[in-house]
Amino acid sequence: MTAKTYAILNYGCQMNESDAEHYAGQLQELGYKAAEDFHDADVVVVNTCCVRESAEKRILGKIGELKGVKANHPGQIVCVAGCMAQKDGGKLIKKHPQIDLLIGTAHVNGFKEILAEYLSEKGERVYNSLEVKESEFEGERIRQSGFSAWIPIMYGCNNFCTYCIVPYVRGRERSRSIENIVDEVRQAVAKGYKEFTLLGQNVNSYGKDFGVKDQFAKLLRRVNEIPGVERIRYMTSHPRDMHEDVIKAVAECEHICENFHIPFQSGSNKILKAMNRGYTREKYLELVAMIRRYVPEAAITTDIIVGFPGETEADFNDTLNLVKEVGFDAAFTFIYSKRSGTPAAAMEEQVPLEIKKARLNLLMEAQNISSLQRNEVLVGKTLEVLAEGPSNNNNKVWSGRTRTNKLVLWPVEGRDFELGDKVQVQIETAQTWLLKGKAVE
Ligand code: 5AD
Ligand code: SF4
């Protein structure tokens, strides 16, 4: 008998990518093999995101498409997991009867049992309670990358920024124990993984739910000591909770990368207040200054939202000026998307789409100039790059990332490189999105 197969269609953030690896691990534990094409898979998991309306629309299109796919493959099991499953629950099944199982965000660990029960026709179809307290990882992951591993350290978020749906769909903060995290890192090291990204919606509050403060810096230092760990990254940080102890840990620990991703969202104090962010632009600039003091070579990246309700031209200019003043290495820029159920969705003075688009363009232009400037400074320098493989199916050029998370391309020139190799690359040219150079030594 040929083995049953599965496919995972993943959307959204790194946490979702990590959850998808856990779904794949559990499916393999149940004896399923990865399908080459989701149309033919016996189990399809759609792992969803609802952070912005655009993501939701795309995913609803895919769920619609699965109706036809399933009609051609009787017996196919369609699981909808993740943030939309959490948000919309049973309503999704009513509207899209092709869905067999709905798995909310707090049930990833229990997926194996949920699926087994469903197959034995005993189980429920909707699992979206957020009352599950389980945060310790069990079982296997089938990781996408061969050298870089996602390591979730906490789930959920307590922040309630007024634009954001995440606290409603991911529940309150639950941290994994340091032992459970260290075990997973050790196991991944034994399989050859070199780079570890510690994940959480707000990593700086790691461990607060255990009643202890400043645990994140301790966790970073602990992971730094695990033999075989070459690089440590983490995301996402909250400017309000990012303190000196973490910056010091980055400065002092050999393996923690010099890349700070600290979303500021808006440069206007009025908008930051309306967003419930808990800091001012002045505090944010102090944080940037502290980072530059301890880690002068650090890359600083950020997330920015334009068109939050009530954002005037003057507020937007505050954002634009902050971008110019800080000189970010990169920024993820978003148009504010109304998420029903969040406080901002009910705010008056929603900004018209045309204005939001125009502001986004201006912001991206300013950021592109800054990204290029930050990259140009690196021309002539020799940087440590972790090799990720051939670039764009072109075996003559390899790509990888610097410790500051910049993409670098270099010609192979007859040399042999392996995935995860540390390569010294002398930078010759800088572009907005990448650097090019030659391997030296
Ligand atoms: N609209 C637009 N962007 C959003 N983000 C979160 N919620 C929204 C929303 N409603 C952005 C924030 C966050 C990133 C992951 O997504 O910038 O940092
Ligand atoms: Fe999307 Fe947020 Fe859920 Fe990640 S946590 S999948 S960004 S809604």
Topology:
Elements: E1 5-10, H1 14-29, E2 33-34, E3 43-48, H2 53-71, E4 77-82, H3 83-88, H4 90-95, E5 101-103, H5 111-119, E6 126-127, E7 148-152, E8 154-155, H6 166-170, E9 174-175, H7 178-190, E10 195-199, H8 215-224, E11 231-235, H9 244-252, E12 259-261, H10 269-274, H11 281-294, E13 299-306, H12 313-326, E14 330-335, H13 353-376, E15 382-391, E16 394-402, E17 407-411, E18 422-430, E19 434-439
Parallel strand pairs: 1-2, 1-3, 3-4, 4-5, 5-6, 7-10, 10-11, 12-13, 13-14, 17-19
Antiparallel strand pairs: 8-9, 15-16, 15-18, 16-17, 18-19
Helix pairs in contact: 8-9, 12-13
The structure holds 5'-deoxyadenosine (5AD) and iron/sulfur cluster.
Residues 12-13, 15-16, 49-51, 82-83, 165-166, 169-170 line the site of iron/sulfur cluster.
What general form does the structure show?
globular
| Count of helix runs | 13
Strand content: 15-25%
Strand order of the largest sheet: 2-1-3-4-5-6
Portion in helices: 25-40%
- The CATH class of the largest domain is identified as Alpha Beta
Q: Quick check: average pLDDT?
A: 95
What Rg do the Cα atoms give?
22 Å
Biggest sheet layout? 6 strands, parallel
Q: Which structural class best describes the helix and strand composition?
A: alpha/beta
Number of strands: 19
Count of folded domains: 3
CATH superfamily of the largest domain: tm_1862 like domain
List the ligand species.
5'-deoxyadenosine, iron/sulfur cluster
CATH architecture of the largest domain: Alpha-Beta Horseshoe
Low-confidence stretches: none
CATH-defined fold name of the largest domain: pyruvate-formate lyase- activating enzyme
Terminus-to-terminus distance: 53 Å
Catalytic activity: N(6)-dimethylallyladenosine(37) in tRNA + (sulfur carrier)-SH + AH2 + 2 S-adenosyl-L-methionine = 2-methylsulfanyl-N(6)-dimethylallyladenosine(37) in tRNA + (sulfur carrier)-H + 5'-deoxyadenosine + L-methionine + A + S-adenosyl-L-homocysteine + 2 H(+)
Subcellular location: Cytoplasm
EC number: 2.8.4.3
Domain Radical SAM core: 143-373
